[in-house]
């Protein structure tokens, strides 16, 4: 089963490699990983999407907690939560494709953020399934380049992960 | 007061009460060595190879509960130390390693003797630091010691670039214990869980106590003994836990696992309540997990590290906390509850009858010989001559297992070996650390002719510092444990397991200024050991015992097999 793990860790050099090293050393799998500083610049917030049985994910969270740089760990999948991913996608937009692409972007509530006479660059956010649906809806040959951030997650309602 | 980084390092070591540092100088640590030259708070032991510095510091910790400290230079100094660090990490030994690094501005330029120390050691330390500013140095050193000794202990490394050791800043003496928002180990166990454990124990018909290295690390030997006595249960100590419960006590059923006793393994499998204390259900201890789970039993697991719980075996009552604190509470609650609802004594009697039947197999009895030296016999004689009271280190292989089986440890911190990583070559440097931490005590090294050659250069260190361990080399001219597996599982094809072209060990140790003895007859074994510990008490003695080449370690549970699928001897093959 897919799990979304949120980690609050010291914003120290090397902290990221400790987390990544743990996953590779113990044979756990990382599907996506995002990390950036929080409103408190001494802390980073990381979201990792991983695949595994409940036993494996329990071990993952325990091992993450064991890392000295890790302040808090929570498996967001254990409760209601929100996931979002950002994709930037560059598509061919020539002739009548230009209208078609604009329409597709509108349908998926994407935004065209860069335009040339041959190319649109579209920004799209949403859950992973939506991003994949958008890619699936396009003609493969029209896709020139994609870049995805991986999932960021946050708990719903009053659920808060902070110090 | 304004100090340079090197002086700060030395000051911080003094603050932590360090009295011995094991190390080897080099370019990146010259300022630190200069500061060491000018101080007399601690003694520096100059080893002959950085691996030995870490092993010695490690054994210093294991045998004394003080924190061992090793100091190495950058690049090869550090890479040489890695085996020592990984060895300590696998056995959760508190250690602080200080490594020099090239100057900050040169990091990443492939400078002379540069390596990515923090990257290389990251998977085998509890934590590591690269110091970037001299102002952070003192706090980093204090954190290193704090992290090493608290929670589940482990090695912590501090990497210090050379420019930081010469830069100066204001030094403020340590005030109070370190606090870290990201690191707060649990100490007390959950009382509700402890009560559940008490209820299970009171209702148990076949209780069993399985204790590991965690009991020794948390100095909980007295609490363990109290628990075993209160419950009246059999107790087994793992390889890492030997001595936590006295081997001479009738409730001790020997070591469990791959080369454990028949009675210990049968009791582990057939008990109805198993209390695991500071042990981690290692593959060498419980064998195949599916086979282990076949027999229903309730398991209580006491461990300071939550990630040890339900890692290999699902447990019913996990108790996360410091073993000593948890056992104190468990003993108190058990004593109280046993007054109200006393346990079933007759069930316990039947359980002991069963255990004594298993003991009747006498699985450690071996064939004696008047003509050839049996390795087990050497260990038995060592035990007799030293009254079971020596500190014994070992290397890794058959001799290690015989030492664990036949030297009956009654006290914790007396048996010093590499359990988790299984590092050949630790024996001699371990003895150095043990003797530094326990001056005046008898120290024996049980080794083999292969293992000893992995760190034999330390005979020179022993000469320099007048260290006098007694080395018992069980010389069978084979990589014995490899040969045993090849005999059993690889059709006796002894691929590269014969040790040819051995040195004349007697002459070799004499050239280092020590005493060498060659022993070839069983009748000479005891007199030789006695002479080593009396006449040559103040000398290092190397006893080269020419032993039976084909002797194997029994009992044996083959890798991947169930705990009770034991081979008791060659007849079971």
User: What are the segments of chain B in which pLDDT stays under 50 over at least 5 consecutive residues?
Assistant: none
What about the largest sheet of chain A?
5 strands, antiparallel
Outline type of chain B: globular
Characterize the overall form of chain A: elongated
- Give me the Rg of chain B, rounded: 24 Å
- Structural class of chain A, by secondary structure, is alpha+beta
From the alpha carbons, calculate the radius of gyration of chain A and give it in angstroms: 18 Å
Q: What structural class do the secondary elements of chain B suggest?
A: alpha/beta
Strand line-up of the largest beta sheet of chain B = 3-2-4-5-7-6
Strand content of chain A: 35-45%
- Main interface: chain pair and counts: A-B, 20 and 20 residues
SSE pattern of chain A: EHEEHEEHEEHEE
Biggest sheet record of chain B: 6 strands, parallel
Q: Count of DSSP helices of chain A?
A: 4
Q: Name the poorly predicted regions of chain A.
A: none
Structure characteristics:
heterodimer; A: 163 residues; alpha+beta; five-stranded antiparallel β-sheet; four-stranded antiparallel β-sheet; 4 helices; 28% helix; elongated; B: 573 residues; alpha/beta; six-stranded parallel β-sheet; 15% strand
Describe this structure as you would to a colleague.
The complex is a heterodimer of chains A (163) and B (573). Chain A is an alpha+beta fold and 163 residues long. Chain A has helices spanning 15-25, 54-66, 97-107, 128-137; strands spanning 2-10, 32-37, 43-51, 70-75, 81-92, 111-115, 119-126, 143-148, 152-155. In chain A, strand 2 (32-37) and strand 3 form a beta hairpin. The longest helix of chain A is centred in the middle third of the chain and has 13 residues, at 54-66. By secondary structure, chain B is α/β, with parallel strands linked by helices. Helix content of chain B is 38%, strand content 15%. A six-stranded parallel beta sheet of chain B has the order 3-2-4-5-7-6, with helices on both faces. In chain B, strands 15-14-16-17-19-18 form a six-stranded parallel beta sheet, sandwiched between helices. In chain B, helix 6 (134-149) links the parallel strand 6 (127-130) and strand 7. In chain B, helix 1 (5-15) packs across helix 2 and helix 16 crosses helix 17 (398-406). Chain B starts with a strand and ends in a 27-residue tail after the last strand. At the A-B interface, helix 1 and helix 2 of A face loops of B.
């Amino acid at each position: 089963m897919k799990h979304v793990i949120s980690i609050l860790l010291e914003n120290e050099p090397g902290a990221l490699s400790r987390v990544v090293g743990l996953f590779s050393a113990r044979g756990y799998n990382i599907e996506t990983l995002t990390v950036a500083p929080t409103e408190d610049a001494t802390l980073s917030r990381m979201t990792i999407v991983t695949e595994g049985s409940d036993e494996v994910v329990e071990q993952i969270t325990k091992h993450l907690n064991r890392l000295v740089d890790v302040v808090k760990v929570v498996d967001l999948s254990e409760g209601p939560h929100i996931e979002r991913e950002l994709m930037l996608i560059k598509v061919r937009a020539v002739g009548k494709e230009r209208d078609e692409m604009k329409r597709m972007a509108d349908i998926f509530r994407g935004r065209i953020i860069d335009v040339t006479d041959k190319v649109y660059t579209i920004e799209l956010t949403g859950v992973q399934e939506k991003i994949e649906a958008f890619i699936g809806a396009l003609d493969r040959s029209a896709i020139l380049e994609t870049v995805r951030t991986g999932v960021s997650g946050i708990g719903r309602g009053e659920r808060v992960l902070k110090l | 007061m304004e100090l340079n980084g090197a002086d700060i390092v030395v000051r911080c070591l003094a603050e932590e009460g360090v009295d011995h540092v094991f190390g080897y100088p080099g370019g990146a640590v010259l300022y630190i060595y200069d500061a060491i030259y000018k101080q007399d708070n601690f003694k520096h032991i100059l080893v002959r190879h950085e691996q030995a510095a870490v092993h010695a510091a490690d054994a210093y910790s294991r045998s004394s509960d003080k924190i061992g400290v090793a100091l190495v230079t950058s690049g090869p100094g550090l890479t040489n130390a890695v085996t020592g660090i990984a060895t300590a990490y696998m056995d959760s030994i508190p250690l602080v390693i200080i490594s020099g690094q090239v100057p900050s501005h040169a990091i990443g330029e492939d400078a002379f003797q540069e390596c990515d120390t923090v990257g290389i050691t990251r998977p085998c330390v509890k934590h590591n630091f690269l110091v970037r500013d001299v102002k952070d140095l003192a706090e980093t050193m204090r954190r290193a010691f704090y992290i090493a000794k608290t929670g589940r202990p482990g090695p912590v490394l501090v990497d210090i670039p050379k420019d930081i050791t010469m830069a100066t800043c204001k030094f403020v003496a340590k005030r109070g214990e370190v606090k870290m928002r990201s690191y707060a180990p649990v100490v007390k166990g959950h009382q509700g869980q402890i009560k559940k454990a008490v209820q299970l124990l009171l209702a148990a018909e076949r209780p069993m106590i399985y204790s590991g290295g965690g009991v020794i690390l948390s100095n909980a030997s007295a609490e363990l003994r109290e628990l075993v006595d209160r419950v009246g249960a059999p107790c087994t100590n793992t390889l890492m836990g030997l001595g936590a419960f006295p081997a001479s006590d009738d409730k001790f059923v020997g070591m469990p696992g791959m080369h454990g006793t028949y009675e210990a393994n049968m009791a582990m499998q057939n008990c109805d309540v198993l209390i695991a204390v500071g042990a981690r259900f290692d593959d060498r201890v419980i064998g195949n997990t599916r086979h282990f789970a076949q027999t229903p039993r309730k398991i209580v697991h006491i461990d300071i590290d939550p990630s040890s719980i339900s890692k290999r075996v699902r447990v019913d009552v996990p108790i996360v906390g410091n073993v000593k604190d948890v056992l104190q509470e468990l003993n108190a609650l058990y004593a109280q509850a046993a007054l109200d609802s006393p346990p079933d004594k007759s069930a316990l009697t039947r359980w002991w009858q069963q255990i004594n039947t298993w003991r009747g197999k006498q699985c450690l009895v071996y064939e004696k010989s008047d003509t050839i030296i049996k390795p087990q016999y050497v260990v038995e004689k060592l035990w007799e001559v030293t009254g079971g009271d020596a500190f014994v280190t070992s290397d890794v292989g058959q001799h290690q297992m015989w030492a664990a089986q036949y030297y009956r440890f009654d006290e914790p911190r007396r048996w010093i070996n590499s359990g988790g990583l299984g590092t050949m070559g630790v024996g001699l440097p371990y003895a150095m650390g043990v003797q530094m931490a326990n001056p005046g005590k008898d120290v024996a090294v049980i080794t083999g002719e292969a293992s000893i050659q992995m760190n034999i250069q330390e005979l020179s260190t022993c000469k320099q510092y007048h260290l006098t361990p007694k080395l018992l080399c069980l010389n069978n001219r084979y990589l014995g444990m490899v040969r045993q597996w090849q005999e059993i599982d690889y059709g006796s094809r002894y691929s590269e397991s014969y040790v040819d072209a051995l040195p004349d060990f007697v002459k070799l140790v004499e050239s280092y200024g020590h005493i060498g003895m060659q022993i070839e007859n069983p009748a000479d074994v005891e007199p030789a050991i006695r002479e080593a510990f009396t006449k040559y008490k103040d000398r290092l003695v190397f006893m080269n015992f020419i032993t039976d080449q084909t002797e194997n370690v029994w009992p044996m549970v083959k890798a991947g097999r169930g705990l009770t699928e034991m081979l008791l001897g060659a007849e079971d093959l």
